[in-house]
Amino acid sequence: MARGLEPAASAAAARSARWPGGAVVYEIYPRSFQDGDGDGIGDLPGIRSRLPYLEWLGVDAIWLAPIYASPLADYGYDVSDHRAIAPEYGTDRDFDLLVADAHDRGIRVVLDLVVSHTSIEHPWFRERPDFYVWADGPEPPNNWLASFGGPAWSPDPVSGRLYLHSFYPEQPDLDWRNPEVRAAMAGVVRHWVGRGVDGFRIDAVDRMVKDAGLRDDPPAEAPFPLPMPEELRKLDLIHSRDSPEIALALATLREAAGDVPLIGEVYLPVARILPYLEYLDAAFAFDLLHADWDAEHLAAAIERSSAAGGVAWVTSNHDFPRVATRWGEENTRAAAVLLLTLGDTAFLYQGEELGMVDGGPADPPRDRFGRDGCRRPMQWDGSHAGGFTAGDPWLAPVDPESRNADSEAADEGSVLNLFRRLIELRREIDGAPVRVSSPANTLVFDRGRHRVAINLGDGPATVALPEGATVVLETAAGAARAVTDGVEIDGHAAVVTRIG
Ligand code: GLC
Questions:
Q1: Which one of 138, 235, 382, 469 has the minimum C-beta count within 10 Å?
Q2: Given the CA of residue 168, which atom of ligand 1 is nearest to it?
Q3: Can 203 be counted among the known catalytic residues?
Q4: Which atom of ligand 1 is nearest to the CA of 267?
Q5: Per-residue pLDDT tens digits for 285-325
Q6: What is the pLDDT of residues 383-393, one digit of tens each?
Q7: Of the options 3.20.20.80, 3.30.70.3040, 3.40.50.11260, 3.20.20.450, the CATH number for the domain spanning 11-118+179-428
Q8: For residue 27, with 0-12 CB atoms within 10 Å meaning exposed, 13-18 middle and 19 or more buried, which class applies?
């Protein structure tokens, strides 16, 4: 399959020139990408064996969701040793080989930095209790809630005190006001930079520093604009996260990382990410990910996000339903055009390039918060386990027989080949997106001499073109036709046109 295909000449050179602005970063959820040893769990040698595919696809970088030692309460986001590779993923040597091989192919490697909390099994929790946030109890000191529901305070049976956890109780929050925590984490960052890492995605940045006085979150006047459990939406989350003193933590990371890019997962509406961008290279545009598939909603999210000046575009990841499941299978191709033509860094979650849909939860569920569906394994071929493993997959693939990389690579009209063409084309597109007025249910924007036109409606729509513009990409062959006053685009289709 794609493993044998040759990447476009000079692609590696073109890739290395873009970092991080303009890069396509491919998110790998290591447990579900490729198993190399038949234990049913993805691993580093498995990822390495698929680098030729990623090179063929043309991505600039890979982001590995956590690969560190973890008791897996949150599948790696509960780290018990920030410098150790989880044994089921491989060895230090496997990591070095992966980085070296990726670099040889012009692909950068981004690690996930989970720094707002650790696993409760991290030795620090017992050896350095002062690294965490405590209250005497027995009642919680405030009304803060954990992101996965329930109180953010749990009793520690050993000390009899309450500890703070913004996520699962197995993930106690670190106290970033403690200079020794900051020094320890700076050491972690320097360690991985020394191992050749090219960038970091920083987990849950907005949870790193909380109100020093532990004040209650007041009742919300309007619900939080991004999805979260109902009970949290009733509160105005101003003290349990997003402290004005966040700079204290961010400055430490920035200094330790030097000029290695930092991309933050700031789970806040984009209007609130500016203080983070003073230290980070980019922050994810969750406003876009959570926008309805509606021209006006998308346009507004893009405008707000672009105005922040430093977003990384993202339409799916390992936490939320996939594009095909959220925005509809009929829209996956148009959504690919949107993600990859906006400019700036774009994050592409594994399997999206195949148009994968979510599966249901495993029985019993693997993730207690219900995220199994979007974490189903990559579908490499049409076999029962989709080529993901020679063993018994930890989560079953969804539908490898009807959707897989092998067959899509061989089919010029596939979603996969559309992604590949888009990634190649985006190198030629520059300039900020400027919205152009267009008929209802269409979203049209110019970037320099390129015009991107997306028809979100069911029926055909005609979009005006500048003088001399011709179609350079369409979501499917024959999806658009030249008409006297522009281009007629089928429902759910999109085109990119160019002048000259
Ligand atoms: C981030 C991760 C998510 C994880 C959480 C706690 O939101 O993307 O998967 O559960 O942080 O670390």
A1: 138
A2: 6
A3: yes
A4: 7
A5: 999 999 999 999 999 999 999 999 899 999 999 999 999 99
A6: 999 999 999 99
A7: 3.20.20.80
A8: buried
